[in-house]
TrEMBL record:
The keyword Chaperone belongs to this UniProt entry's keyword annotation: no
GO cellular component, one term: membrane
MF annotations from Gene Ontology: Hsp90 protein binding; telomeric DNA binding
InterPro entries: ARM-type_fold, TEL2_C_sf, TEL2_Regulation, TELO2_ARM, Telomere_length_regulation_dom
Gene Ontology biological process: 'de novo' cotranslational protein folding
Name of this protein: Telomere length regulation protein TEL2 homolog
Annotated Acidic residues bias: 461-470
Annotated Pfam families: TELO2_ARM, Telomere_reg-2
Disordered: annotated segments: 451-472
Annotated TELO2 ARM repeat domain residues: 327-418
SUPFAM superfamilies cross-referenced by the UniProt entry: ARM repeat
The organism's place on the tree of life at top rank: Eukaryota
Length: 800
C-alpha cells in the first residue's frame, strides 16, 4: 500500500478525532483524542509528528479545530474531564497554536455567544490567559520573521481590527462583567510593551545579520494610535534606547516609514506629545519629514497652522526638531514664512478664533528664537514686513486682547531683530486705559514689583528701627508743595502751553476742573483744544482721568461751542485713534451729566441709568439687564389703577442734544488719508455707533428725539451687515436705543416703512439672542400692529 502524503494523513487523523469527540461518551477515549490533537502543536524532541504534519495542521486544520471546540463548549464529553485535564488539553489547544488564528477564533466566539453564560466565561478566561502569557508578542514576532503562512490583505486587515479593537469588542459583549485587563487603560500599555519586546528582538536579529519585516508592527502601531494612546509607554523607552544605539535608531526610522499614510497623522501627533525633548524626537523620527510628504504636511503645516490645541511645550519640541538637523533647517525657514503670513493676514485676524491667533503668535516667536544670526540677517526684510503688517492688522482690531497680542509680538520681534539698535516699546497701560475691565495682563505684574520693593525697603528699615520710639500718626498728612495752585483759567492755559515745570503743570491739571465749574469761561474752546492734544510728558499720576474730567467740565459749562469744536475735530485729519476715542468718551460723559434732572442736583437721575464707555457696550454683554428692561416695559404698559406713572422732568441735555448728535453724522462717508471710517477703522466706527446710541438713549422725552431716531436708523441700516462683530452689535444697541427713546406715535408716523423692515430683519432666521432682545423691545411698544403673530416670539412668550 503506497504511503500517504502529510496533508492526507493529517486530514484523516483530524477527521477521526472530530468524529470521536462527537460520538464518544468515554473519558479515556475523549482524553486520548485530545492528546492526539495536542500532539500536532508539540515540537519537542519526543514528538512523533513530523514538521510537515505540524505545518499542515496549523495551515489547514487548526482554525476548524478551535471552531469545533467552541461549538461543543457545552457538550457532555467536556464534563467528563477534570479541571487539570481541561486546562491542559482543552485550553492548551488555544494557547499553544498559531496566535493569530487563536485570536480571531476567540474574538469571533466571544462576539457570537450569549451573555451571560458559562461558555462565555470560559472563552473570556482563555483570552485573558492568552494576553497574560505573552502570545501577542509571539503573534507580532511571527509576522516580523515572516514564518507564518501567507495571507490575504483582507485577512490581515481583520486581524489588525481584532488586535486593536479588542477593548471595544469585549466591552460591547461583556458590559459590566468586563475584565480589567481588557480595559483601554490596561490593554494598550500591554500592547505597547509587547511591541517593545518585538523591537528588541528585531535589533538582536539585525545584529545577527538576519532580516526582519516591521510592516505588520507598523500597521498595528498606526491603528492603535487611532484607537488609544500607546506612546506614553513607547516614547520614554524609545528615547532611552536610541540615545546611544544606532541600531535602535534605524529600527525606529524603519518602523515609522512603514506606517500607512492614513494612520501616520495619529502616530506623529501622539509621538510629538509624548516625547520631552526635540533631540529625542529627532532620534526617533530621523528625517522622516524629508522622505514622506504626508509627514511633512502634518509637522510643518497642520500641527502649526490648522490645529491650536497643543501646549507651548509641544510647539517647542516640534520646531526644535526642525532646527536640530542641517537638512531640516530649510523646513524651519518655510514654517517661519507660513507663520508670518498667517499672523499678518488681516482676514485671519478678523475671522479666526482668539485661541488660534495666540497659538500662531507663540509658534512665530519660538520659530524666530531658533534662527541663527546669519538666517536672521537673511530674513530681516521679510520679518520687518511681517511685523509692520501684522501689527497694523492687530491694532486695527476692535478686540482688546487682539491688539495687546499685536503689541507684545511686535515688541518681541523688534527686540530679536534689533533694528538699528532701536527697540519697539508700547505704552501698554496708556493704550488699554479706555478698557479697564479687559486690561488684566499688564496689571498682574504690578503686585509682584510692589512686593519686591516693599521687601527691599523692609530689609533696610530693620537696620534703623528703634522699638522704643512711638511713631506719629501721619495718615492724614498731605504733601506740602512750594508752588501755589492757579486761581484763574488763563493761568492754567498758560501753564499748559509754555511751562516746563512739572509741578506747575500738575497743579494746573488738578485745579482746572474746579475752576471751570465755578466760573464762566471765555477760553473754553482754547482749553479743550490744548487738553485734547496734551500728552503726559511728566508721568503725572492720574493724568488720563484728570484730563478727561477737565474736558467734561468744559463741555458741560459751555456746551454749544465746545461740542461744536469736538465734533468737528472728530473728522479732522492728523488725529490718532486714541484722540478720536477720547472725543467720543468726553461727549458721552458730558451728555450724561447734562441729562440729570435739574431738580435733583445731588445725584444722578433715577430715570436714566449712568452709562459710560466702561459699561457693557452691547445688549448681549448683559442679558440679565435687558431682561429687566423688557420686564419694565411690559409692566409700564400694563394698566393698574393703584399705580401712578412718573412724569418727565426737565434737564440741560434736551435743548443741546442736537449739537451732540447730528455733527457726528456729518462726514462719516468721506474717507481721508489717515482716517477711513467705513474702511479699515472698524474700532472707531463701532465706538461711534455706540456713542450715537447712548446719546439717543439720553435724549428720551427730548423734542429732537424723533429726528435723532430717524437719522440714526438711516445711518446704522447701511452697516448692519458689517464684517466686524463690534460694529454689528453696535447696530443692535443703536436699534434698541431708538425703540426705547422715541415716542410710540413717532415710531409709527416717521418710521413706518423702516419699522416693518427692521422687524423683519430682527426676526430673520439667522438672528441671535441680541436680535431677540431688540425684537422684544419693539413688540413691547404701544403700536397698533403689534400682535403676537410670530410663532418664534410674542407677548405671550416673553423669553429672550
Amino acid at each position: 500500500m503506497p504511503s500517504l502524503t502529510p496533508d492526507v494523513e493529517v486530514r484523516l487523523s483530524v477527521g477521526q478525532c472530530v468524529r470521536t469527540l462527537t460520538t464518544s461518551k468515554e473519558k479515556e477515549e475523549v482524553t486520548k483524542t485530545l492528546h492526539t490533537l495536542t500532539s500536532y502543536l508539540d515540537d519537542g524532541p519526543q514528538s512523533t509528528i513530523t514538521s510537515a504534519q505540524r505545518a499542515e495542521f496549523s495551515r489547514a486544520h487548526y482554525t476548524r479545530t478551535l471552531q469545533f471546540l467552541i461549538s461543543n463548549i457545552n457538550a457532555d464529553w467536556l464534563q467528563l474531564l477534570t479541571v487539570p485535564q481541561c486546562t491542559e488539553l482543552w485550553d492548551g489547544l488555544f494557547l499553544r497554536g498559531p496566535p493569530d488564528q487563536t485570536l480571531l477564533v476567540l474574538m469571533d466566539g466571544i462576539s457570537s455567544m450569549s451573555s451571560p453564560s458559562a461558555g462565555l466565561d470560559r472563552l473570556v478566561s482563555i483570552l485573558e490567559r492568552f494576553l497574560q502569557s505573552g502570545r501577542l508578542t509571539v503573534l507580532l514576532w511571527t509576522r516580523c520573521q515572516g514564518t507564518g503562512p501567507s495571507d490575504s490583505p483582507q485577512l490581515r486587515e481583520t486581524l489588525l481590527s481584532r488586535l486593536v479593537a479588542l477593548p471595544d469588542l469585549t466591552a460591547n459583549q461583556l458590559h459590566h462583567h468586563n475584565k480589567t485587563l481588557f480595559l483601554p487603560q490596561q490593554y494598550y500599555p500591554l500592547l505597547a510593551r509587547d511591541m517593545l519586546t518585538v523591537l528588541e528582538r528585531t535589533c538582536q536579529a539585525l545584529r545577527g545579520l538576519k532580516d526582519c519585516s516591521l510592516t505588520f508592527v507598523a500597521q498595528a502601531l498606526g491603528k492603535a494610535c487611532v484607537q488609544g494612546h500607546i506612546f506614553g509607554v513607547l516614547a520614554p523607552h524609545l528615547s532611552s534606547c536610541t540615545l546611544s544605539d544606532m541600531v535602535w535608531q534605524r529600527v525606529c526610522w524603519k518602523l515609522l516609514e512603514n506606517v500607512p499614510e492614513r494612520w501616520l497623522e495619529s502616530v506623529l501627533t501622539g509621538m510629538v506629545q509624548a516625547v520631552n525633548r526635540p533631540d529625542a524626537l529627532s532620534r526617533i523620527m530621523g528625517n522622516l519629514v524629508l522622505k514622506n510628504k504626508k509627514a511633512q504636511f502634518v509637522i510643518t503645516h497642520k500641527l502649526l497652522l490648522l490645529q491650536y490645541k497643543y501646549e507651548t511645550r509641544v510647539l517647542s519640541i516640534l520646531l526644535g526638531y526642525l532646527a536640530q538637523d542641517r537638512e531640516r533647517r530649510p523646513l524651519l525657514i518655510q514654517v517661519l514664512r507660513s507663520l508670518c503670513q498667517a499672523w499678518a493676514n488681516p482676514s485671519a485676524v478678523r475671522h479666526t478664533p482668539l485661541e488660534q491667533q495666540l497659538y500662531v503668535s507663540r509658534a512665530l516667536l519660538l520659530c524666530v528664537g531658533l534662527l541663527s544670526d546669519a538666517e536672521l540677517q537673511e530674513l530681516r526684510s521679510e520679518l520687518l514686513q511681517c511685523m509692520l503688517g501684522g501689527m497694523q492688522s492687530h491694532l486695527d482690531s476692535s478686540v482688546v486682547r487682539v491688539r495687546r497680542m499685536g503689541m507684545v509680538v511686535g515688541e518681541c520681534l523688534s527686540s530679536r531683530m534689533d533694528v538699528n539698535g532701536a527697540k519697539l516699546k508700547f505704552e501698554v497701560q496708556y493704550c488699554m486705559a479706555p478698557f479697564p475691565r479687559l486690561w488684566t495682563v499688564p496689571s498682574q505684574a504690578v503686585p509682584s514689583q510692589a512686593a519686591s520693593v516693599a521687601q527691599k525697603s523692609g530689609a533696610d528699615s530693620e537696620l534703623d528701627s528703634d522699638d522704643e520710639l512711638t511713631p506719629y500718626d501721619m495718615s492724614a498728612d498731605q504733601e506740602m508743595s512750594q508752588a501755589a495752585p492757579p486761581r484763574y483759567l488763563r493761568d492754567c492755559l498758560e501753564a499748559f502751553l509754555s511751562s516746563e515745570d512739572p509741578v506747575r503743570v500738575d497743579l494746573s491739571l488738578r485745579a482746572i476742573e474746579g475752576l471751570v465749574r465755578k466760573n464762566t469761561s471765555t477760553v473754553s474752546v482754547e482749553l479743550s483744544k490744548v487738553l485734547l492734544h496734551m500728552e503726559d510728558r511728566y508721568n503725572t499720576v492720574g493724568f488720563l482721568s484728570l484730563r478727561q474730567a477737565a474736558m467734561v467740565a468744559l463741555t458741560v459749562t459751555d456746551s454749544v461751542p465746545v461740542t461744536e469744536y469736538l465734533t468737528t475735530e472728530f473728522y479732522s485729519m492728523n488725529y490718532s485713534i486714541r484722540q478720536r476715542l477720547d472725543i467720543l468718551e468726553v461727549l458721552i460723559l458730558s451728555a450724561q451729566e447734562l441729562s440729570q434732572p435739574i431738580t435733583d442736583k445731588g445725584g444722578p437721575s433715577k430715570a436714566i441709568q449712568r452709562v459710560t464707555m466702561n459699561t457693557p457696550l452691547y445688549p448681549g454683554d448683559d442679558p440679565i439687564h435687558w431682561r429687566q428692561v423688557v420686564e419694565r416695559r411690559i409692566q409700564s404698559k400694563t394698566k393698574r389703577l393703584s399705580k401712578v406713572g412718573s412724569k418727565p422732568t426737565p434737564n440741560r441735555y434736551a435743548p443741546v442734544a442736537g449739537h451732540f448728535f447730528f455733527p457726528l453724522l456729518r462726514n462719516y462717508d468721506r474717507p481721508q488719508v489717515t482716517f477711513d471710517l467705513l474702511g479699515g477703522d472698524h474700532l472707531v466706527l463701532g465706538r461711534l455707533i455706540h456713542t450715537l446710541g447712548l446719546l439717543m438713549h439720553l435724549a428720551v422725552n427730548a423734542p429732537v428725539a424723533t429726528q435723532m431716531g430717524r437719522a440714526l436708523l438711516d445711518f446704522v441700516w447701511a452697516v448692519r451687515y458689517h464684517v466686524d462683530q463690534m460694529v454689528r452689535r453696535g447696530v443692535l444697541f443703536a436699534v434698541c436705543s431708538i425703540f426705547l427713546s422715541m415716542p410710540s406715535q413717532s415710531l409709527l408716523v416717521e418710521l413706518s416703512d423702516q419699522l416693518f423692515e427692521t422687524r423683519a430683519w430682527l426676526a430673520g432666521e439667522n438672528t441671535g439672542q441680541n436680535n431677540k432682545v431688540s425684537l422684544m423691545l419693539l413688540y413691547t411698544r404701544d403700536l397698533p400692529y403689534n400682535r403676537p403673530t410670530s410663532p418664534q416670539l410674542s407677548l405671550s412668550q416673553p423669553t429672550v
